[in-house]
């Protein structure tokens, strides 16, 4: 049986979540109070309905509690987002992900039982800033306030050396999880793995360790 998701709020974020889930072969119920937005997604998703998500009866009628995961992508109307989260929690929806508009919104959502909170604009901003600050950093993913994963292009200092020779783990406390070489991906590379020019390293570690690693390897 296909996994069932419901997406409430069909702005750019909610809409792209719907598209990605459908592409992955999931069943998607798309809900918005705006008929024009619903019509836009009608032919793409499994079901699309016009409904006000703050109306508990309407959500019950849609059988929302039977959905494995509900994504609340209402941004601007914080009050509606909070109320919808509360209703879904009370109805017993098992997994709820909510898009937060700001820190205050996030704080309230945490208190009322949202299992997962996403901040797409803020997170994308942070990722872009890391990319802009270091020409070698292609992408950045924050794991916690102290740990991250970065995708970084091998420097000339690194090419032609093995991971053992670079001593990344012992010297910097970081781990090279994978190496992208063109279309090939070397997962969990061995210590004897040779780094080539234009390799892309995926490195996990504490922020301060990653910073030291970048500093040492990329200051030409
Ligand atoms: P994005 O930044 O993702 O593009 P947006 O700024 O276009 O979003 P938002 O105000 O964040 O729009 O709302 C996203 C969608 O949520 C809108 O299509 C809006 O009609 C819908 N929405 C807002 N409140 C409710 C509600 N109570 N019930 C159902 N849908 C709602």
From TrEMBL:
SUPFAM superfamilies: NAD(P)-binding Rossmann-fold domains, TrkA C-terminal domain-like. It comes from the Bacteria. Residues 135-219 form the RCK C-terminal domain. Residues 2-118 form the RCK N-terminal domain. Gene3D superfamilies: NAD(P)-binding Rossmann-like Domain, Regulator of K+ conductance, C-terminal domain. This is TrkA family potassium uptake protein. It comes from Alkalihalophilus lindianensis. The lineage of its organism: Bacteria, Bacillati, Bacillota, Bacilli, Bacillales.
